[in-house]
Design goal:
Elements (H helix, E strand, L loop, with lengths): L1 H8 L4 H16 L8 E5 L7 H7 L2 E6 L2 H11 L5 E5 L5 H4 L8 E5 L11 H12 L5 E7 L4 H10 L2 H4 L13 E3 L5 E3 L3 H11 L2 E7 L3 E7 L2
Length: about 220
């Protein structure tokens, strides 16, 4: 996790700095009555946004699959009485949450997590919708835009080579928004068509949106 903190959270790459700042501002200022809600952070990593969520929410459920990240996440979660850590795959969301008393859920998929998803991301989106269809449930999903790929992707990943490996320019496809490295790291930046599909799967009503040249944050609320 420390390398990730150094290279991503503490990045000097302007677009990535802005992305994390705007994302954090949205989830801490745009949710109505957060003190009555359970925030479910899917792919919580080492707990980058844990302090901010724990300070606002009634409860936080942080879900993570990677064992190394999970250890740090559990360590950080010990500081907060209202945080529970769940080990598991976000594609099994309904199963992971079956024993949790989730009230007024706000599901979070941040920092283009869907772009590096293990397995079929459609399954994850359908699971998010299922959980959010509880009365008053919400989903906030945050993605990088394919339209920014040509200008931003390779320079950004060059600053992250220690984590993702050297860019494989033969297999990287700007038109499709797909970055690949020589260590087989893959990240999807989402086209307008894909973003529309994602919104359709999540259903509900649009409660908010941030659309910049580089990234998209969609906030869905189910009645």
């Amino acid at each position: 996790p420390q390398r990730y903190i150094d290279l991503v959270e503490n990045t000097r790459f302007p677009m990535l700095q802005e992305y994390q700042r705007v994302e954090l501002d949205y989830i801490t200022t745009k949710i109505q009555t957060p003190q009555s809600k359970t925030f479910i952070d899917i792919g919580a990593g080492y707990g980058r946004v844990l302090p901010q969520l724990a300070g606002k929410a009634k409860r936080v459920v942080a879900i993570e699959l990677d064992e190394e990240m999970l250890r740090e996440l559990k360590r950080r979660a010990e500081e907060y009485a209202n945080v529970d850590v769940v080990s598991g795959n976000g594609n099994n969301l309904t199963e992971l949450l079956k024993d949790e008393n989730v009230q007024n859920p706000v599901l979070l998929s941040l920092q283009n997590s869907l772009g590096t998803w293990k397995g079929d991301y459609h399954t994850a989106l359908e699971g998010m919708r299922h959980v959010a269809e509880a009365p008053g449930g919400e989903v906030i999903i945050s993605l990088l835009r394919q339209e920014a790929f040509q200008e931003q992707a390779v320079p950004m990943y060059r600053t992250l080579e220690e984590l993702v490996g050297e860019a494989d320019l033969e297999r990287t496809d700007a038109k499709r928004g797909v970055f690949r490295s020589k260590t087989d790291y893959k990240s999807q930046w989402w086209t307008a068509k894909q973003r529309a599909e994602i919104a359709g799967i999540l259903g509900g009503q649009k409660a908010g949106e941030v659309l910049t040249p580089n990234f998209w944050i969609l906030h869905i609320r189910h009645p």
